[in-house]
## 1
Amino acid sequence: MEMKIRSSSRTSGFTLIELLVVIAIISILAAILFPIAGTVRESARATDCLSKLHQLWVSATVYKADEGSYPEALMGYAEIADGAGNSTGVPYTGGALPVVGVTKIINGFMYAEQIKDSNVFRCPDNPNTLKSSTTPGNIVTAAVFPPRPVAWPVYTSGPNAGNVHEYIGDVLQPLCGTEPTTGLTYDCYTKGALAGQRKYFYKWDSYDISPLIDPSTLKPVPGIFARTYGTDWTGAPGAYDLTYQLKYKSPPDDRTILTYCTWHQTIAKTGTFPGINMGGSARKLNASLVLKLGASIFGQ
């Protein structure tokens, strides 16, 4: 009797339903892990930024000990290049003239005396990585003063007691002019042959300037950079002026800000600006409070 043996075969591999389940699981894991990885990376960049701020504070302290005052800028202004690409030492004030690269300026302030590595001046969130270019607009920019903070301090004594202190942007507006989109005052030279000419900064430089942040939205204003370091924020010295400014010989360490950086809010929307006071305390500052209080953030 002939027996028929039935062979059974099973097709190996995933069914469509199993494949869809695997894809769904991977998608869920990716949705969970990618934001965590992004947060970890941003936390590392913020830590690096705070470390650089501390280096700037140490160097600013050394600069003041050597020179008797704090520098008018931390890094230095853009300079015009000669035919060989080297610096003429002449400040760049706009136009089509060639500009030297970041590492070739010769009239820097803390660079390259106290700080020899130009990378210290660049926030890790700053996407401007060009150190040199044949097109000035690629590497340099003019800057404005941030808008007058809504909670700018008032005089506590003297003939103006109760009135709001002067603000550098208002004081310099007639001399320096305004940026057409925002109406904010440009930073400009105030003395000598260059008086009234705009100062130009390297986009690499993240601690003299950073993107202008709109106080109402906490979003960057496209293409506009604002001063974040300055020795004078009132523009009006006097017996009743704010004492926590770097233009004074011995500003109170715990109340006086050195600088802050807005790149983390610009790129990662962290809600914070890393900043440091003259006591060497570097920390993440609430972005809304900085915009509300301005350079008096540590003095409030």
## 2
Amino acid sequence: MKMQIKDIAYIRTGLFAKTATTGDIAYLQASHFDGNGHLKRHVKAGLTSVDVITKHVLSPGEVLFSAKGSKNFATVFTYEFPTSVASSSFLVLTLFRRDILPEYLSWFLNSPDAQIQLKKEALGTSIQSISKSSLEDLTIPIPSTRIQEKILDLSSLVNRAKNIRRKISKLESKMIENQIFDFIKKHP
């Protein structure tokens, strides 16, 4: 079965706000994440509860989609994050269908096929932006929850394998470099 995103999730824009040096709510921006949508570092709280309308506070299971700039990614907001709101560079997707896992939606939005489709719809010349309507109109295949879980497991294994290959490559380079310097030391 295939459906458009607007038929499975509500989409709202992130909040535009000025941050302060202190606060009790984190203001998530795209720069807080790596290219894979993982939080890079601890995010300091820069907004207060008084500054934020309750509807903007993120809930676990919501999907953040970085809609502005050259690197668009999706990530699932979890309990590991501090109490947060998303900046205006994000579109926030709240699933209303129970048969779709937020992690699957995030995986799909990060997939090359979805990224290509969304890039075709991007607006702007210097800073490209994916519009809410473009995201709403994107069609997503919806397999059973069991298949979604298997896709996520396979994706996780692929990512682990990539990381292992990257580490092996670095270690090989370091080993060769050390051998070269050892050779230079022995043969001045």
## 3
Amino acid sequence: MNISCAPIALFVYNRPDHLRRTVSSLQKNTLAADSELIVFSDGPKINDRESNSIKEVREYLKGISGFRSVRVVERAVNWGLAASIINGVNQVLQQYENIIVLEDDLVTSPFFLKYMNNGLNTYASDERVISIHGYSYPIKRLPENFFLKGADCWGWATWRRGWEFFEEDGVDLLNQLKRKKLMKRFDFNGTYNYTKMLINQIEGKNDSWAVRWYASALINNKLTLYPGNSLVKNIGLDGSGSHCGRDYTFNTTKFEKQPIDNNIPVEEHVEAFMQFQDFFSDQDTSIDKKGFWNQVLSVIKRFSN
């Protein structure tokens, strides 16, 4: 089967060591040589002490090889994660029908690009599916591949038709969730406080694009495809990022296994949803005495700008 490869949009800032690991893992993918890499390099903040790190990042970017082509978009000033991603995805999808999105702290399996592109090709014309996701929580009994309603943000892909559902206005999203009586479902039946994350975005306490992407997909009853064994490992939850503390809750080591054919029934997998819910619920006893909400705050920071 010939796979048409989507462009890869990689969003970077000031962590050269993380970036090298991210790019190195991508280069090990069999489809890397057939893929265009478009890098969006965010600029320094006013009086940014990290400007030397940004210079190091940009110098490294000049020497990247192993892809069909490499294009670097250097931001003159600091856009912040949310604005950079929203603008970058918009920009790429003006030219292409689909996109794969990564950030500079996501290490991928050698099978990541194959899974993403296979999913993009398989469900390209299926309006029920809004995106493909590469990360999956460290849960032991997940099916090989499954669909859940909503969307996610750690190594993902979508089409122009899917991204058209993205709504930037958090107030509008919250009102729609209330009107459609989706608040409980949005929070995985009270086990994960996405509503609080969205309210904080509205109040300017964070600038999360990811919670708005998730809400946009759920409101429109759209599905995202997940692998049972994660094809992405987040190496940024080590205290090095601008918006995340040290956190190992979401680490996974099961990401080297090649997934089987992902052409499965297009419907939400009820058991997988319950397993996600149970995973979130279990964190209040298995992580530390501060409980699951400590982890929620960490991910809110990770999603935020």
## 4
Amino acid sequence: MKKSDRIYQELNKKYTDEEIVESFVFNETLTPEEQKTVDEAFRKIRLERLKNMSEAEILFGNLMKFKLRLQDYFKRKGFEAPFSFSSQLKNYIRLSKKNNKDFADNIGIHPTTLSRIANGKENPNTALMYRLEKHSNGEIPAHFWWKLHARELEHAIRTDLEQKIQEGEKVKEVLVFG
């Protein structure tokens, strides 16, 4: 028995055929020409809606797209270079439509510090992450920024074997077990 037949039988125990028809939407099969016409009409409506969006609506839409991309990244395993803290900070600054100097002024840090962090020359601190959360009006939480940074740090620790050896040579005594 098909799944749809089983569903119908269960619904038929509770509802009449007329009630089922009135309450449920069934997919309509369109010819390719009809589907093309419907798609074209939808596209026109969508383009018209996009043209009439305010700057605030566009900014919010871009911010939500940024947030969803981060959430998708967090679901995946491991570090990906395009999702480094510095890359995402640059994307966020671009999204805000500010230059680095104005953005730095908005979040209360020196432009040189912002530049060093955005170019991966300096690590961010939690204060910056709190400021970024506030700047996004809470839409991009501080812990999202921390997750980006933490993944990058973990990747560096796992893959920088040269520094691991150099730092290990500075240890004078290791713990001995047994």
